[in-house]
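Chapter review: from sequence to fold.
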Amino acid sequence: MAGQRVLVGALLFGMVAGASVAGAETVPLPTPAPLPKEGAMPPPPAAAEGPLSGLKSLFNWNRPAEPAAPATTTTTAAFNPSQRAQADKVSQYLSSVQQLSGKFVQVGPDGTRVRGEFYIQKPGKVRFEYDPPTPIEIVADGQSVVVRNSRLATQDLYPLSQTPLRFLLSDRIDLIRDTNVVGIRSDDVFVTIVIEEKQALIGTSRLMMMVGAKDYQLKQWTVTDPQGYDTTVAVSNLDSSKRADPNLFRIDYTRYNQ
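The token string follows.
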């Protein structure tokens, strides 16, 4: 069960220093600009769980049952007009995409790579299907996220509001207004938006989204958990024209395991 939770964290959080995925589709992982760190990076976790390594602290991203951290000073006011315009364009893109499917490659903190297909239907619905032999699939139906493990015949349920998926699945979003944006940078290839959340009992998590500088399409996202571990998900073969089968997003709550 711990490995399953780790896998989910890696998919929804993440970052890597670059190279293409060996033996997978030709999906290059772009090299993101250095992400600010709070202190030294701890050594990566052991790879004992293989492809299930890397998903850490996912469901602590926004746990409403715990006291919120004191309000922190945002750097939003320091953004120049060009940065704000870029954030607005990314917000417009995320809001305009109502359905999306494609391939993904996930790289965990220990360098383990897994791949699969994903389907998004806004608001709030997503499905990640991992290629064999990974036994995991992740489904959100608009309210909850379920993590199914076919090998163990289990599924675990979490509120969608507790995961960073909500940023990608919101019907409409204004990043500057609705999130704590702490970094906006761009070059000829990517526009990068860094979002930060702090929890008093958990620590600081960061979500870094990278979109194309010309088409503003989503290319990858990276999550850094409170322990400093990074996981990246790079997407490709994106198709926003086809509406997915609604059955892909259904959760059988009678199978929920506490």
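Two observations follow directly from the output. The CA atoms of residues 56 and 89 lie 30 Å apart. The longest strand covers residues 190-199.
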